UniProtKB/TrEMBL annotation:
Classification lineage: Bacteria, Thermotogati, Deinococcota, Deinococci, Thermales
InterPro entries hit by this protein: cNMP-bd_dom, cNMP-bd_dom_sf, Env_Response_Regulators, HTH_CRP, RmlC-like_jellyroll, WH-like_DNA-bd_sf, WH_DNA-bd_sf
The name this protein goes by in its record: Transcriptional regulator SdrP
Single GO cellular component term: cytosol
Domain HTH crp-type: 117-189
SUPFAM superfamilies: cAMP-binding domain-like (SSF51206), Winged helix' DNA-binding domain (SSF46785)
UniProt domain Cyclic nucleotide-binding: residue ranges: 1-65
Pfam families per record: cNMP_binding, HTH_Crp_2
Length: 202
């Protein structure tokens, strides 16, 4: 008899998990379809993206161990998720451990960029990271990213007003074209060179 996989779905913009000690109804999840954004928000309402969880990835693992959660988990696109059992089998735990290791490496890269790169360089890196997510699609032979200035500000550890200026600068220099809620990438090679360069953070 084939076991039916339990799944749950959320619409883009839905908050899936909240910060705090996990309650009895909280679950850990595996992403089957879509993209989940994990964000920490300070007392002034400024957000910082901690991690993007793609299909095959996990989040909410605090529920398995009773640890306090420091982030919001938000559906960046429509998503379909698989809740994990309270007592995962060894194979699933192995997959979860591997994912956590990859997530930790991603977090280290974000910290490194915050410490060593100018905002303009961090923005180029953030745009390229979105290339590998469901937020990217092609229009007229160019890649277009579905992203607001608020979301990009959270991705690079800045505020919307400053990010809007940097987006304008990148557009004037021919790297991108900015539209309402979307960014068209015009010069991928140039963005990669910008993302890989180092400078003092600000």
């Amino acid at each position: 008899m084939t076991q039916v996989r339990e799944t749950v779905s959320f619409k883009a913009g839905d908050v899936i998990l909240y910060p705090g000690v996990p309650g009895p109804r909280d679950r850990a999840y595996r992403v089957l379809e879509g993209l989940v954004r994990l964000e920490a928000v300070d007392e002034e309402g400024n957000a910082l993206t901690l991690r993007l969880v793609r299909p095959g990835g996990f989040f909410g693992e605090e529920a398995l161990f009773g640890q306090e959660r420091i982030y919001f988990a938000e559906a960046a696109t429509d998503v379909r998720l698989e809740p994990l059992p309270e007592n995962p089998d060894p194979e699933l735990l192995k997959d979860l451990a591997q994912h956590l290791s990859q997530g930790l490496a991603e977090a280290y890269r974000r910290i490194e960029r915050l410490a060593t790169q100018r905002l303009k360089n961090r923005m180029a890196a953030a745009l390229l990271e979105l290339l590998e997510t469901p937020l990217a699609h092609e229009e007229e032979g160019k890649v277009v990213l579905k992203a607001t200035h608020d979301e990009l500000a959270a991705a690079v550890g800045s505020v919307r007003e400053t990010v809007t200026k940097v987006i304008g600068e990148l557009a004037r220099e021919g790297y991108i074209r900015s539209g309402y809620g979307k960014i068209q990438l015009l010069d991928l090679k140039g963005l990669k060179e910008l993302a890989e360069s180092r400078g003092q953070g600000r």
